[in-house]
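Sample entry (175 residues):
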Amino acid sequence: MKKMSIAIGVVIGILLAMPCVSARVQAAGPVKIGIIDVQKILRESRAAKNAQAVFKKDLEAKRAQLIAKDKEIKALDEELKHPQSRLSDQIRKEKTDILAREVKEFRRLDADMGEELKKKDVEMTQKLLGEIREVVQSFAKSEKYTLILEKSAVAASDDAIDVTSRILKLYDAKK
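Predicted structure, serialized as tokens:
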């Protein structure tokens, strides 16, 4: 019972405060709302494409390093498996140990490179998002937008309020 009376009191308080909020919004002028598709900007902007090109180049260099290491491992493995190689038991054991170390090192290198690339991707994305956010804030202030929302957070909207292309042009011009 006590909780219900508190809830009723809160609702009445909100209802009484609504005219004050409404008066403030009316005094501030008309409400202007925009929608942006940040993912589209991340795909299509020149800065994002340049960053992705650098990332891809780095990725290819890392892959080449892994491929070279993989070839070394396969060559050593073939040498051990080849029936015509007449290796003494001691040399065979040494090469088997070397192969095991190389495989372990390859796996560690692969995991380290994967983590490093993920970290670089996150850093690049965060940097781009920060730059986009600055452009959006500047745009909202200059165009007197009350609110600009991310398209993925909106259930439905009219395409007329989508300002993605304008933000994309401003962002590319800035870069």
